[in-house]
Amino acid sequence: MTMKNPSRHGRRLDYEKTFRRHHPALFRYVHRLTGDEDVAADIAQEAFVRLLRNSVSEESVKSWLFTVATNLTRDRARTRGRRRQLAERHLPEPNPAPSPHGAVERSLRAERLRRALDRIPERDRRMLLMREEGFRYREIAEVTGVATSSVGTLLSRALDRLTEAYEEVMDGEETDPPTASSGEGGTASGEKGTT
Amino acid sequence: MTSAETSNRPEPGPDPGGGPDDGHPDDGTLMAWVDGELSAAVHTDVEAHLDRCAGCSRRVSALRDASHRLSRDLKELDVEPPATSPPRPGGWRAARPLPRRATAAAALLLFVAGAASAAIPGSPVRGWLADAGQWMTERLSEADAPAPAVEPAPPEGPDVEVDPGVQVTPLQGSVRISITSLPPDALLRIRLVDDERAGAWVREANFRAGPGTIDIWGAEGDVRIHLPRTVEASVSIGGRAVVRLEDGELSSRIPVVAQEEDGLVLRPRE
Question: B70 and A112 in contact by Cβ < 8 A?
Fold first, then answer.
């Protein structure tokens, strides 16, 4: 099916082609942001549902989709944050799943990163992840609502904070018992930092 | 890099805005230099400054290292996107497998309720349970099956780019494309185009684009490169220049697998 999304400005949008081109990156971005596969799938899908109802040019569709997905992630995290305040005191002790031997190192790196990302401010996380998706500074500024001239400085600070967070996570691993350390990132971390 | 490393740099000069004038570029400018976000003139000024300033060079290395580590570790977090189709008008959404957690919770609930009811002799729940059990088994095996990737794009002709990629405008008539490494069987497909911009596309890779430059690392698959036929260009792999474009002519230092009307197909590892 080739469906055209009419646009008032710029080239007309080929909806299915847009979906094929941007859905994987959008899903990846939200998954990296939240750590939750189901949330990422829902939000990426919802962003494309909203695209159907809006007039967006081909030139700006990528920024538009990421802006919508970022806002949806933030809204969802707010709602979940309120619910979690009531629920988290009843959370069971985490039970770390055994990893296959060869995957331990990769899994450890992923967990460290997840926990480090959860420790930095939300805006830092969004900006770093958008940069990873190849966004230009102008586009990052557009989505995050900062001045384009500030993006470089904010990104460098975000990288510094992430590096410090990595170090804190690794220091924690040295001092904490291994079970407590490996379990913490696997439970509520997905949305912990997205408030 | 930490604040300690930053403090090892010489004190910034008199330019509080961080411009690369007499003083040292600030962090934002160095970050923008790494990302190819500066204008050509400022980019060149910063480059010249970095050649003579060890402190700023260290800071650039630290920013790059942190950035590369983030790119590498993010890949460990990634999962395949679910098999899904574009949503249709009217709010219809493509079905996707139930989340595994929800499926497991439903199965547990059914099991407990079923066990309690089935304990009653002659209960009609026994027959119902048999049906429900079969249905759940089917759903569970569906949910546990590896999620296929998003449906592949239908063939749309050689000019349609469906892989992720970047495009850049040449800087003073030249383009430099740098690839850190390639898998053993990957091909390099270079085509001369009438477009004003150069571009590179790979099924999976990290890209960094700046004025006239594209850096690619972590490439997994063939790399397709479009070069405007009027520019001077170089393509390097692992720091070694392997292809050059001068006066509209492509020359290669690696084996050519196929010569096409507008380009070359190369196999770097042969």
Answer: no
Distance from CA of A47 to the nearest CA of B (A): 10
Q: Is the pTM of this model over 0.80?
A: no
Q: How does strand B223-228 pair with strand B188-193?
A: parallel
Chain A closest-CA separation from residue B204 CA (Å): 11
Region for A91 from its dihedrals, namely left if φ exceeds 0, alpha if ψ lies in -120 to 50, beta otherwise = beta
Which pLDDT does position B143 carry in this prediction? 47
Residue ranges of E strands in chain B: 165-168, 174-179, 188-193, 198-202, 206-210, 213-217, 223-228, 232-237, 240-246, 249-252, 256-260, 263-266
Residue among B70, B86, B88 minimizing CB distance to A132: B70
Taking contacts as CB-CB distances below 8 angstroms, the residues of chain B near A15 are 86
Going by C-alpha positions, the residue among A77, A76, A72 that lies closest to residue A26 is A72
The angle, 0 to 180 degrees and rounded to 10, between the axes of the packed helices B125-144 and B100-118 is: 160
Give the list of residues 6+ apart from residue B39 with CB closer than 8 angstroms, or none: B211
Backbone region of residue B142 per phi and psi (left: phi > 0; alpha: psi in -120 to 50; beta: other values): alpha
Grouped pLDDT means (10 residues each) for chain B, 270 residues: 44 42 85 90 91 93 91 86 72 49 72 69 65 64 44 36 75 84 86 87 81 82 89 84 84 81 81
* Whether B213 contacts chain A with CB within 8 A: no
Identify the bridge partners of residue B171 per DSSP, sorted by sequence position.
Answer: B174
**A28/B28 Cβ within 8 A:** no
pLDDT tens, residue by residue, A79-111? 766 555 544 444 444 444 555 555 677 788 888
Cα A79 to chain centroid, rounded: 17
B210, B268 contact by CB (below 8 A): no
Q: CA torsion, points B63, B67, B69, B75, in degrees to nearest 10? A: 180
| pLDDT above 70 for A138 | yes
